[in-house]
Every structure is written in structure tokens, then in C-alpha cells.
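Q: C-alpha cells for this one, please.
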Amino acid sequence: MTKDSVIKSVYLNKSLTDFAKKTTKHNDLWQDVISEMIISLSDMPDAKLIELHRSEGLASYCFKIIYLSWNSPNSPFYKKYRTREGVS
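A: Here is the predicted structure, written as C-alpha cells:
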């Protein structure tokens, strides 16, 4: 399995999409949270991402990225989108 195929499988995972919508309370920024997660995964070393996928820990890792991106005032996503837009 390659890094690209792992990222594609994450992108197509409906449960992650549903979680992003739920976490953002269906705010229009839910797609941006998904994009931010994909960027984070792309920045990971190939071996680490593939190992997370093989150990079946990738889904929970992605859920955590989505949750923290939306809720943590220290996350780059929060600073970039939520403080500027005034979204709560």
C-alpha cells in the first residue's frame, strides 16, 4: 500500500465525513476541516502513515485531527478560519 492510496481511502471514508459534519454542527467549514486533515496526513512521513493504516489506528488518528482542528483555539485551522469568521 502506498501513501497516496492510504490518503485516498481516508478521503473516501464516509464515517470521517459524517464525523466532520457532526463536529462542526454542519457548518459550511466541514469540508475545510477534511481538507486540513488530508494536508496533515500528506505532511506525515510515508512510513508513519502506512504503519498507522496497517495497525488500524489511522481512523482514530483522523477523528482526533478533525476534532482538535475544529475545537482547539491553538490549532492552525481554528486560528485561520474560526477566529477570522467569528464562527463558534
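A few notes: Residues 3-85 form one domain. The two ends are 39 Å apart (CA to CA).
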